[in-house]
Amino acid sequence: MTTDTLAHETASLLAGFGIGPEILSAGDFAATSPIDGSRIAALRPHTPGDLDTMIAAAERAFPLWRAVPPPRRGELVRLFAEELRRHKPALGRLVSIEAGKILEEGQGEVQEMIDICDFAVGLSRQLYGKVIASERPGHRMLESWHPLGPAGIITAFNFPVAVWSWNAALALVCGDPLIWKPSDKTPLCALACNAILGRAIARLGDMPDELRQGLSQVAIGGAELGEALCDDRRVPLVSATGSTRMGAIVGPRVAQRFGRTLLELGGNNGMIVASSADLDLALRAILFAAVGTAGQRCTTLRRLIVSQDIADTLIDQLKRAYRQVRIGNPLEPGTLVGPLIGETAFGKMKRTAVLINCARGPIVDTDALVQALDAKTIAGAALDTVDPEPLPDPHPLRGRDNVVLTPHVAWYSEQAMAGLQAGAPGEVRRVLSGQWPLNVVNRAVKGKSRAGL
């Protein structure tokens, strides 16, 4: 697929949602596809002043929306689910184009939107309060839940539509207008979702202009908009999804003004495989948990803890499974791993890579390795101290905090490297597959070493 074809398809998909070509060329805020890095739109970014106007519009909409009976609010969400079912193939494909997810994941994410809408519709008739006994004769106490006000929603690129819907469907039935700050990497998905919701709003029937205009809005731009959303007292709740670093900033920032937060942040997930496990089932679960969304999820599998008596068998099965993983264009059937979201993500991945090698000399060019470490192309290395000959002392590789002189063959994360430096035992993971940095591997023996590199 050529760059022009990709941009044309994106415009065609958005046109189906009612987003015209003038929107896609209104400014200099680039929307790109990780499939080939091409620009697929140039949007007009919103300013903090624009966001202020949006919050004011949401404030005006709030008393009007909270006065609508909850089952009627649920009817809007039901209509939204109908529109999502109608547009599921197109919206799922847009997710694949803009976020790089494989087709099945893009479609699955839209299905998650539909599922939460179905749940929220039922909830709209179950906003119960408790009746509580009182010590005063002839009295009773009632618990009543009330809408908060405009809800700020900040989402990440890796789930560009589903996470917003989890917040939006519930907020709408509870009586709260929406202000969405999507990731700057997936603005088109946000515009598409808001346009689809707009169709449901139109189907709901007569609605005051102030409510129609302020019920759901999207703010396109960078981090400054998220910061402004966190600081504004008119936004009583901020729901933010992203890294733990981001959450550590958002949480205290909103708390300073006594606002409320919902934070869905990063993870460090492990899986335990016991001796009694169904290995066929475990194999499928391990593989997709590790490689789904190219590993760019808070739920991505990072650690595998296996009973020793089945470890060799499971590792052999994993090796065979990984050899069959197809990496490529997420729009092509059969692809299991698409691209990373962008160059920054790729750069971070490279910086956290650590080269572990059991033999210097013919396999590793130590001068190139020194240069790679100095340039921070890789995070660290481990080298055998004696094979094929003792490492000279002094040597530029000695005395470095990020170089471990020990005989192992594996890829290590930075956390594992820290563990080795602290005296952790043995190998963390054998080489299953992957490419070692070309600039530190002797090309003459690449593919011929005993590590298969």
Describe the structure.
This protein is of the alpha/beta class and 453 residues long. The chain folds into three domains: 3-130 and 143-264, Aldehyde Dehydrogenase, Chain A, domain 1, CATH 3.40.605.10; 269-323, no CATH class; 352-440, no CATH class. It has 14 helices and 14 strands. It has helices spanning 3-16, 48-66, 70-99, 103-123, 162-174, 187-204, 209-214, 223-231, 244-255, 279-291, 308-323, 343-351, 366-374, 414-421, and strands at residues 29-32, 39-43, 131-133, 140-142, 151-154, 178-181, 216-218, 237-241, 260-264, 269-273, 301-306, 354-356, 380-383, 403-405. The strands form five sheets. A five-stranded parallel beta sheet has the order 7-6-5-8-9, with helices on both faces. Strand 3 (131-133) and strand 4 (140-142) form a beta hairpin. It starts with a helix and ends in a 32-residue tail after the last helix.
Count the helices. How many?
14
Helix amount: 40-55%
Strand order of the largest sheet: 7-6-5-8-9
What overall geometry do the principal axes of the alpha carbons give?
globular
| Gap between N and C termini | 32 Å
CATH architecture of the largest domain: 3-Layer(aba) Sandwich
User: Mind summarizing the main beta sheet?
Assistant: 5 strands, parallel
Mean pLDDT across all amino acids:
85
Instruction: Note poorly predicted spans.
Output: 357-362, 407-414, 419-453
Class per helix and strand makeup: alpha/beta
Number of domains: 3
Could you give the order of the helices and strands?
HEEHHHEEEHEHHEHEHEEHEHHEHEEH
CATH homology-level superfamily of the largest domain = Aldehyde Dehydrogenase, Chain A, domain 1
Topology, number of strands:
14
Rg value: 26 Å
* CATH domain class of the largest domain: Alpha Beta
Our estimate of the beta-strand percent is 5-15%
From the 3D structure, determine the CATH topology of the largest domain. Answer: Aldehyde Dehydrogenase, Chain A, domain 1
